[in-house]
């Protein structure tokens, strides 16, 4: 790996010198070093395929170009209790990573190991203070977020004694942590610096358990920046590949302890380490399975917008006209829009970001809008949008124009794209010339817009 780094660093900053330097480095490194470069050994991770603690290393591996594979046929409660496994981790917990130099347990340590396999990995940050902040947020994600989610969740699903005051304490500690996280994220896209770090990976994995099992929309809406951050991360390709689609819990699990006769019969020893429960007989439901439990994917229903009476307006034709018009935008694209527009089959909407005063950092604001458009991907067949980031200095205003199939904002968009509720929505009255002119200006990115410069204009098409 060390030679790998030498080789890459000779190449990267000086592309024009590549041929000269690569022949040098080949001579210097010899054949074995090349095999390291082209055939990195896959590391084996022992964990079930729904274990968020295993996901930390798998996502870090995706970002780092490292090969990590889940062990085949892992069975929770059986595989991790075998003598061979206990040699790797005497406590019998997962995940465990097998490396050429021996095993590593504890998911954060495993994720750090995988991350260090890539030299100078930006997942750790790039300055001393960034390294420290990455570690700071990893501990925070573990001790303030994850620990309190587990203290709340585990008793509810019947793996520890349920005590109302203990639950209350867990919830208030979690809210305290989320409040701090929300404030940090109100002016930062990521936890540290301007790109994803290992801290974000670990935080997102911990939040995934929370969002999918426990934290309903009602609960998380108090923390809108955490929501934005979470949904943005889990929809990044490197996360999505490992996590699949994350769905938010619709309710807090009802208290299970009383409903499980097999457990009720056992002497009720209060447990301070809730996870010890899972160590009992394999016949019982296993904690990890209970925690990771996923609903079977439902077959996809046809979109109800496809059942609307056909429209003479072909959305793709408009998008093509918009994209292909380079000059005389008013005369060609804007005029073309109104020629095509079908007010029966489509509706136009203005949107206005509700929290403009929080848009104090330009790139954070641009990332927010970028994330919104990314999440609108699911509406591509039924929508066109323009989003303007307005102002030459903070706080920036975010305003937009959307064209939707049908007369209402499609319900599936409201349900699936949480950004929708961060905006006030107003249907355009096209009989009002002023509103129509505002539509034209937004289609055109007219500058100044309402007296102000544009920081950016993004289009969803
Ligand atoms: N701090 C550990 C937690 C590991 C852990 O609690 N693993 C659970 C599954 S998520 C487990 O193996 N439970 C089985 C047991 O307690 O025997 C880590 O992050 O790796």
TrEMBL record:
Residues 127-255 form the GST C-terminal domain. Signal peptide: none annotated. Residues 41-122 form the GST N-terminal domain. Residues 253-304 are annotated as: Disordered. GO terms for molecular function: glutathione transferase activity; translation elongation factor activity. Residues 266-289 have a biased composition (Basic and acidic residues). Transmembrane segments: none annotated. Keywords: Elongation factor, Protein biosynthesis. Probably plays a role in anchoring the complex to other cellular components. EF-1 is composed of four subunits: alpha, beta, delta, and gamma. This is Elongation factor 1-gamma. It comes from Prunus persica. The lineage of its organism: Eukaryota, Viridiplantae, Streptophyta, Embryophyta, Tracheophyta.
């Amino acid at each position: 790996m060390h030679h790998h780094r030498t080789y890459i660093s000779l190449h990267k900053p000086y592309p024009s010198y590549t041929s000269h330097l690569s022949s040098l480095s080949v001579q210097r490194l010899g054949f074995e070093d090349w095999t390291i470069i082209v055939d990195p050994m896959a590391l084996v991770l022992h964990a079930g395929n729904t274990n968020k603690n295993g996901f930390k290393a798998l996502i870090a591996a995706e970002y780092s170009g490292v090969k990590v594979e889940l062990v085949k046929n892992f069975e929770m409660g059986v595989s991790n209790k075998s003598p061979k496994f206990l040699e790797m981790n005497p406590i019998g917990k997962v995940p465990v990573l097998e490396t050429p130099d021996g095993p590593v347990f504890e998911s954060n340590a495993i994720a750090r190991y995988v991350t260090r396999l890539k030299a100078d990995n930006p997942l750790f940050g790039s300055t001393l203070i960034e390294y420290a902040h990455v570690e700071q947020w990893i501990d925070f994600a573990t001790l303030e977020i994850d620990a309190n989610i587990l203290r709340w969740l585990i008793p509810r699903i019947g793996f520890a004694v349920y005590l109302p005051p203990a639950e209350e304490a867990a919830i208030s500690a979690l809210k305290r942590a989320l409040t701090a996280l929300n404030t940090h994220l109100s002016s930062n896209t990521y936890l540290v610096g301007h790109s994803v770090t290992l801290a974000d990976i670990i935080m997102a994995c911990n939040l995934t358990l929370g969002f999918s099992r426990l934290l309903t929309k009602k609960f998380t809406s108090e923390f809108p920046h955490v929501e934005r951050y979470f949904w943005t991360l889990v929809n990044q390709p490197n996360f999505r590949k490992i996590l699949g689609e994350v769905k938010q819990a619709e309710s807090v699990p009802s208290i299970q302890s009383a409903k499980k006769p097999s457990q009720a019969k056992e002497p009720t020893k209060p447990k301070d380490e809730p996870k010890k429960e899972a160590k009992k007989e394999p016949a019982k439901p296993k904690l990890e399975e209970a925690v990771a439990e996923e609903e079977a994917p439902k077959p996809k229903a046809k979109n109800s917008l496809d059942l609307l009476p056909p429209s003479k307006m072909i959305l793709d034709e408009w998008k093509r006209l918009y994209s292909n018009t380079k000059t005389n935008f008013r005369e060609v694209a804007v005029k073309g829009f109104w020629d095509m527009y079908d007010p029966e089959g489509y509706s136009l909407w203005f949107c206005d970001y509700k929290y403009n005063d929080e848009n104090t950092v330009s790139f954070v604001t641009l990332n927010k809008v970028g994330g919104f458009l990314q999440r609108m991907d699911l509406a591509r067949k039924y929508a066109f949008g323009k989003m303007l980031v307005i102002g030459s200095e903070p706080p920036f205003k975010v305003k937009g124009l959307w064209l939707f199939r049908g007369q209402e904002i499609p319900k599936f968009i409201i349900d699936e794209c949480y950004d929708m509720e961060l905006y006030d929505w107003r249907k355009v009255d096209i009989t009002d010339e002023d509103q129509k002119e505002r539509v034209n200006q937004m289609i055109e990115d007219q500058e100044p817009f309402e007296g102000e410069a544009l920081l950016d204009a993004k289009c969803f098409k």
